[in-house]
Amino acid sequence: MSHTSAPDSPPRSAGGSAPASLQDVERLADLARSAHGAVSEVIFGQPRVIEESLITLLAGGHVLLIGVPGLAKTRLVHTLGTVLGLDNKRVQFTPDLMPADILGSEVLEEGADGRRSFRFLRGPVFTQLLMADEINRASPRTQSALLQAMEEQQVTVAGVPHDLPRPFHVLATQNPLEQEGTYPLPEAQLDRFLMQIDVSYPDAEAERQILLMTTGSYDLRPRRVLGPEDLVDLQRLIRRLPVGDSVVDAILRLIRSGRPDDSPLDLVRRHVAWGPGPRAGQALMLTCRARALLQGRLAPSVDDVIALAAPVLRHRMALTFSARAEGVTLDDILAALTAQLT
């Protein structure tokens, strides 16, 4: 295991809790890399998507996958569930989907003694890995039903709170092309996703491999590498990895430069309507640690901040109307922001 940019002593949390042993760190880091390898055995041509999805789960967050149909988004979610040993369910979001179809509902039952009582029937949200397929096709009311679950790890039905399983992650998908009959996610819910991962077409060699491996007699079944307890241990470890001052400064500079009122960049001041809030900085702190561990390092670097800036920030910023008219894209803004850090 590489120890580039690693401290001389085992990692210690900011709160001063006891350090994890190097043996535990090595074991968990090996598990994380094994999980990455197991997913890559089944999902072809999407190495960046696999890495960013795993980083999000290791950091304890939720993922928004943006891509046209047929790019293995559903297969990715099922594969992650199997490899990580998580119970997983899928909900197809449609305009007629109601909040109770996700959260569950109470039914009135009559016992053998004739007494009536309510019993709560759990919905599909009571799982460890929930795939919300085409989330923008459901009404805002139904979309918001996931908001409390994603933020508080619990749901409230008829005034009664119900805890969700731990760990709990939402992997939602969106089709970026067909927007008729859709309801764009509000900014408050977008901010609950740790990353927005854009899923693009595979390159020619990867697509050739897909054709050969998925249309023959090959048994492409994912294998389990770790369990829910291991994932929770990894999430705790990541929060205890040290972050150097240079990385903290880079995150702060990146986030604050993305706000039009504070930015030193003319491009941002002229073309950004609103920029990332403090939650974006928190997301970068966690995901940079997770990326470092996944790559065999015990501390993140500024390179991690640059690599993860786009998936962490692209759904937390909005362009002005003039930017769209002039052909300025969010990718142009993000490129200018990360260029400051090099």
Quick structural summary:
The longest helix has 19 residues, at 22-40.
CATH architecture of the largest domain: 3-Layer(aba) Sandwich
Broad shape: globular
The succession of helices and strands, N to C, reads HHEHEHEEEHEEEHEHHHHEHHEHH
According to DSSP, the number of beta strands is 11
Compute the average pLDDT. Answer: 86
Distance between the termini: 26 Å
- Unreliably modeled segments: 1-19
Tell me the structural class: alpha/beta
- Main sheet strand line-up: 2-5-8-1-9
CATH fold name of the largest domain, please? Rossmann fold
Portion in strands: 5-15%
Please give the share of residues in helix: 40-55%
CATH class designation of the largest domain = Alpha Beta
What's the layout of helices and strands?
Elements: H1 22-40, H2 47-58, E1 63-66, H3 73-83, E2 88-92, H4 99-103, E3 104-110, E4 116-122, E5 129-133, H5 140-152, E6 154-157, E7 160-163, E8 169-174, H6 187-190, E9 195-198, H7 204-214, H8 228-240, H9 245-257, H10 266-271, E10 272-274, H11 278-294, H12 302-313, E11 318-319, H13 321-326, H14 330-339
Parallel strand pairs: 1-8, 1-9, 2-5, 5-8
Antiparallel strand pairs: 3-4, 6-7, 10-11
Helix pairs in contact: 1-2, 1-8, 2-11, 9-11, 11-12
